[in-house]
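Continuing the batch. This is chain 6 of the set; chains 1 through 5 are on the previous pages. Same settings as before, nothing changed between runs. Recording input and output for traceability.
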Amino acid sequence: MAETSPARAAELLFDWRFWARPQQLPPPGDWTTWLVLAGRGFGKTRCGAEWVRSLVCGATPLTAGTHRRVALVAETAADARDVLVEGESGLLAVHPTGFRPLYEPSKRRLTWPNGARAVLYNAVEPDQLRGPQHDLAWADELAKWRYAQATWDQLQFGLRLGARPRQCVTTTPRPIATLKALIEDPDTVITRGTSHDNINNLAPAFIQRIVRRYQGTRLGRQELNGEILEDTPGALWTRATIEALRVAVAPALVRIVVAVDPAAGSGTGSDETGIIVAGLGADGHGYVLEDVSLRASPDAWGRAAVHAYWRWRADRILGEVNNGGEMIEHVIRTVDPSVAYKAVRASRGKAARAEPVAALDEQGRVHHVGAFPMLEDQMCVLTADFDRATAGFSPDRVDARVWALSDLMLAGSGEPRVRGL
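Output for chain 6:
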């Protein structure tokens, strides 16, 4: 490297085949879908961005590549912008200056000097993909998509231009039906990997805080090792039940609540604050509408809960006071003193409180409107003897879901004990 000329060094900087690990390069063969199924920090985003660049760009900035119309699909519009386009490993970062596409955020579009074009889509609005045609697609974090099957179907209908349409899927795995079907597809080639494969390029803080904390736990096997984990034996919920009851839209709702299960702290190693929005339908069934859970300061989670309250025109906010006591109501009312608030107090453990609500699911009376991957992951590992240390997390999202549905559907049954208004 010391003997390399400045011009060659600059050229080498963007020579992906020089820098990439073999796993990060597309496999040979006549495949349609390249599925990169790997843990956090593996380098999946760089794989997708470099793959798009290799097919869209020619030898010079104005030379055509093999593909010209690209669909970029992420979990949300913000993810499409912040990760796929503007991220440290996103499309803008991996291109040399002369090859770099023009990004027009208002049009959700990138245009390369050679005329190739990419459009950004998200999995919250599947109908964005209804109509447009593409010869190339990059789908990021498919396992987290809220409307995974609908979005995937629309993407496939539009992947019909050119002699050889292709797509790359980069995702940390979850056992969802869409991903399982993709794995079984004979036109899919799979690259698997773990966080450890890229350990030399990960921040020491990430290794200390995340890898060492979660290694060996079930959550770690999924998020770090990239394993697809099925239901935990004895779990109160199964993925089959959740999937069978999933709906695209909710019917008319007679009540809506926002339930908050606050974390004891707000540092990097703290638990999340569970915030779940749920409604009671005119049909007597419960509908989980949104998961707004986050790891943040009291002011931030208070604002998130209040914003959800007004966004859904909810009837009240429920706050579990076992950890936070009167602080929770103070946080909520500091953000907006006009909201309707009820304090709820747990007298039993999380699993015991969850059992009556899990029974409602078994009876087919609770539905998820779209998918909530992180919530559903927690639901499908919560057992009667759930151990937080072994699992590697606290099921705060589940707890908030339990409070919401208990208030909507079990009021007066004694489950759970509620006080105040």
